[in-house]
Amino acid sequence: GDEGVVLSWQTPADIHYAGFDVYRRQVSPDVEEETRITAELLTPTSNGEYRFVDSGTLPGREYEYRIAGLAPNGEREFFGPLTVRTGGAEPPRALWLAPCVPNPTRRSTTIRYGIPRRENVRLTFYGPDGRLVCTLVDGAGKDAGYYVATWDGRDDRGRPVAAGVYLVRLE
Predict the structure, then answer these.
(1) Rounded Cα–Cα distance for residues 127 and 113 (Å)
(2) Within the chain, what is the greatest distance between any pair of CA atoms?
(3) Alpha helices by DSSP H, the chain
(4) What is the per-residue pLDDT across 51-80, written as a single tens digit (0 to 9) for each?
(5) What is the pLDDT of residue 48?
(6) Looking at the chain, which terminus has fewer C-beta neighbours within 10 angstroms, N or C?
(7) Which of 19-28, 40-49, 50-59, 160-169 reaches the highest mean pLDDT?
(8) Are the CB atoms for 133 and 166 separated by under 8 Å?
(9) Degrees (nearest 5) of the Cα angle 153, 130, 57?
(10) What's the order of all strands across the beta sheet hosting 167-170?
């Protein structure tokens, strides 16, 4: 679906971790450095299950994931890698904008979008009063396909904006 890559796992009852971090690297078509993609340690549900949704992936790409458990002694234990290939490599038939994730957010939010053909793209954030807050993407001649943009919660002048409701426009 449009949710992203969903990772879920469960630890045995006799194994205890303070939490987990998730690491990802793209391996196809371009290779990227491995980066931690969790903002904070993941904690389990009451039955010991963990769940993480990676909303920063693009269709038609291959990614490797590793999870790192924080042991009681403070050391990290790595598990993986797990290789995932995302589907849907064909460009969308019309402009496509996925929900911002996470939403609401305390730091930054990721916006996935797609364009059906080569064209100029503009991705903007507006306040509820209709005032332009930030132009995140102002690209001339982007190729058809899927893209990811991250908004850091700042306006066009680099100033942090207040928490609240913002509207996203893709044109």
Answers:
(1) 20
(2) 55
(3) none
(4) 998 988 887 788 999 999 998 899 999 999
(5) 76
(6) N
(7) 19-28
(8) yes
(9) 40
(10) 132-142, 119-126, 167-170
Tokens (6 digits) for 31: 């290779």
Q: Which two tokens stand for residue 63?
A: 């990614």
33, two tokens = 């450095």
Angle, vertex CA 41, rays to CA 67 and CA 80, nearest 5: 0
pTM of the complete model: 0.61
pLDDT in tens, 115-152: 888 889 999 999 889 999 999 999 777 788 888 888 88
Written as one letter, the residue type at 17 is Y
Tokens of 156: 């066009």
Q: What's the number of CA atoms in the CB half-sphere (13 Å) around residue 168? A: 20
CB atoms within 10 A of CB 50: 19
